[in-house]
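Retro notes, item 3 of 5
We never archived the inputs for the MU-OXO-diiron complex last cycle. Fixing that now. Sequence and ligand:
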Amino acid sequence: MLFKEIKNSVFYAGLNDADRVIFDELIPLEHGTTYNSYIVKGSDKTAVIDTMYPPFSDLYLKNFDENGIDKVDYIIANHGEQDHSGSIPALLNKFPDAIVITNDKCRQNIIEMLLVDESKIRVIQNNEEISLGNKTLQFIMAPGVHWPDTMFTYLKEDNMLFTCDFLGAHLPFGDLYAKNDDKLYSMAKRYYAEIMMPFRTMCKKYIDMVEKINPSYILPSHGPIYNNPKFIINAYKDWTDDKPENLVLIPYVSMYGSTEEMVNYVKEGLEKNNIKVKVHDLVRDDLGDLAVNMVDAATILIGASMVLAGPHPIAANACILANALKPKAKFVSFLGSFGWGGKLFETLSSLITSIKPEIIEPVLSKGKPKEDDFKNLDKLIQTITEKHKSLNLI
Ligand code: FEO
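Structure as it came back at the time:
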């Protein structure tokens, strides 16, 4: 496969993985993903920026031969996770004179995870530069988007910013450049929800930094290249903004329909009060959609049946996911039904503490909801409405 030239001897050397169905064994991939690697050929030196997921190493290296690349001087490791660093050993084996350029945290990771020979690594500091002759690479530390070892590489002469995982998307592509359409927006948001949302504060910081750099190209390590970066910059500004949307997200699991009846009642009541509601069936719907809706929701209302003496494990899983992804939601509540007793809300609320939500009084029904339960649901609807009004969302 021929490497595609982006501009001025900067080439795309990555690969599509359209068959991959899940990432981190957690969030389903709708279209697969890509592992982006870039080659920058200067007048004196050649650098590779990020490498390849190990199952694709052989094909990746074969492409170097097919493209006549017989010398690599620098291998830039922007991040130690193996979908990008995993082919460093193979690349060093092929180009034994190459030096790995990275920061100290990433150095430790690639030594421990990939057994890279320490003597082959040169550690650089924030803003340090290396010259490739007529091109200069500058390294910008960006810990927290998403690992502590992450950095960006800036190609000064071509105003290209290689942002590693930051600003990426799980979306294979044929043309190099982002189409900036609804499909990409959706995939970039799903990617943000799973990978970047837990680091929302850091994302805000680095999106400001990227905006100040004002690159002509943003070259992430997953998904297409942005030659009109405003699209992704504006999207991240929106997703990372502290103010949530007038949205209630209701993930639920219902064994015999009672919890579902309560969910539908609340949905209808909230919508009458001009609140947008998204209901998510935890058994049948895609977990990635749940993560995406967490990006914007002001309130998360979890519906759960009781299993034995505790919450249904699938509802517990939704709480654990929210706790890990740290959405900006301000309010959390619960509803559900039980057969003979046990602790439902106490257990669920203990699993979703990281975002420090305000807990709204939950509603619990014994079996099918009855008149008193509907009165309590009316109260829940009213309280959520007032809370949304207090944030000027309605
Ligand atoms: Fe795409 Fe953090 O690896």
